[in-house]
Amino acid sequence: MRALTDGDIAVSVEHPEASVKHIVRGIVRRGLKPVPPKASISLRLDTDVLEWLKSPGPGYQTLIDAILRALKEASA
Q1: CA 24, CA 35: separation in Å to the nearest integer?
Q2: What is the pLDDT of residues 7-44, one digit of tens each?
Q3: Long-range contacts for 30-38 (Cβ within 8 Å, ≥24 apart)?
Q4: 62 pLDDT exceeds 80?
Q5: Taking the CA of residue 19 as centre, how many other CA atoms within 13 Å lie in the half-sphere pointing to its CB?
Q6: What DSSP state is assigned to residue 31?
Q7: Cβ(45)–Cβ(51) below 8 Å
Q8: Furthest-apart CA pair in the chain: how many Å?
Q9: Is 34 or 73 the better-scoring residue by pLDDT?
């Protein structure tokens, strides 16, 4: 396999080039718990708080979820 070059690989309709989307779908989540469904809500936040949450880049909604989960678990 290491000796193959891109020119050695035959791409056809039956064997198309793999995309990241296809590779991700093929990854098996062995040993991981299923991810529970999430609820969609509307949430009003102060502008400065929202900017702070968005400052690290994409994923601010996941960050909000993690912060709220940590607060929930700390108060249990």
Answers
A1: 16
A2: 777 888 887 787 777 777 667 666 677 778 899 999 99
A3: 38/65
A4: yes
A5: 3
A6: T
A7: no
A8: 59
A9: 73
